[in-house]
Prior knowledge:
This protein is an all-alpha fold. It has a domain at 16-51. 50% of the residues lie in helices and 0% in strands. It is built from 2 helices and no strands. It has helices spanning 9-19, 35-51. The longest helix has 17 residues, at 35-51. The radius of gyration is 16 Å and the shape is elongated. The N and C termini lie far apart (41 Å).
Amino acid sequence: MRFIERSEPWDLESxxxxxxxxxxxLDQNRHxxxxxxxxxxRAQARQRARELSIRS
Length: 56
């Protein structure tokens, strides 16, 4: 494993996301074919979680 220290790592992150196929990373990744479906599934999962009762 390697690490690169950068003063502005968000620039490198944007570049990598645009060049690599990272389907689980939705941020800055609208070009991925699974983006819309994964976003929808995550929203459904959040809604289901909100509807669950909480037990102590």
